[in-house]
Amino acid sequence: MSKNWAGRYATRIQSMQGSAIREILKLTENPDVISFAGGLPAPELFPSERVKEASIQVLDQHGSRALQYSVTEGYPPLREMVCEQLRAKGVPCTIDNILITSGSQQALDLIGKIMIDPGDKILVEEPTYLGALQAWNAYQAGYITVATDDEGLRMDALEEALKTSKGKFLYALPNYQNPTGISLSPERREQLARLAAEYNTPIVEDNPYGELRFEGEENSLLIALDAKGRATAEDGTMIDGNVLYLGTFSKTLCPGFRVAWIVGPVEVIQHVVQAKQGADLHTSTYTQMVAYQTARDGFVESHVEELRQVYRERRDLMLGLMDELFPPGVTWTHPQGGLFLWVRLPEGMNATELFEKAVENRVAFVPGAAFHPLGGGENTMRINFSNATPEQIEQGIKRLSDVIKAEMQK
Ligand SMILES: Cc1ncc(COP(=O)(O)O)c(C=O)c1O
User: Are residues 289 and 317 both part of a single domain?
Assistant: First the structure.
């Protein structure tokens, strides 16, 4: 490497590391390895034909406009569609509250850009989404972890953290959380929205999995709970509010679109718009139009029904096999939706060491320690159930249980 580069990097690169997951995924590229590691949707369920038709319609209808630069805020009909869906869930908003982003991952990055000064502390669930940590590490963030249990964030731990620390904001994943699959109970949602407002701590609500519900009632969004009793502009635009909400097509249509949205009070959205201008001017005009054309006329809603059914079957198959094969002392979550479940090995066992044995035995998962920004979770692992076929799930869980048993007998 040329000397010209060494010593010229910004100090922030010291806190930027490649995602542990991406490194791990490299090890699982061998086609013989059954991987429960990635967070990938089932590719055979992508609505390819509908996207193909939508692409042609967009070019026929919009011609060169689809290929031209466009406004940073995003394609207005798409923003209006998102708005309608959110209003139906009790979120008071107009298109002025919505910015289309290149995936929710970009929304996380832009939030970091406008909110985080070096050394700021972010309140996060323990464990939490690794991609958010990666985005915010680049802004030299620190973290305050808040304990979770089977109903999600623990309110006693949260109140303690809000009281004693100066967290810049709270990052919350209330639905089928990545990595645990756990959802926040309805009572705690109310409490969370109230506590955060009481302690003047904004919430970033990240909801990529909310639509993938297999059972149970639909829960309220934090942004809807927070909006209750707050004034809006005459035309219904949200002007006051304590929550920034992130939604995406990645899990309901396909991640390759890179089309997502961030929703919040106008003032905050305007700052995010400026941050996005500096990042990529706008999300691809063409892709936004194709995503809109694909999603419109109720298509997402009907497509999600199919996803729910297939993912529910895969989850059930996996849980059944775990019940049958995993040795006593190992426990796991029973997610009501989403893509992941979370396994806890007996104390003292190390899932990173187990991972190496698992790959030798041609099965992979993500060791849970990566999702703990302050350390811990060495005996945990994240398992994805959406991407593997039923045959692979059967083979893979058998292989994994053999590896766990062999390790426990040592
Ligand atoms: C919790 C969470 N947030 C954000 C993202 C990023 O999603 P997108 O594909 O919209 O960038 C993911 C992706 O897996 C995720 O799990």
Answer: no
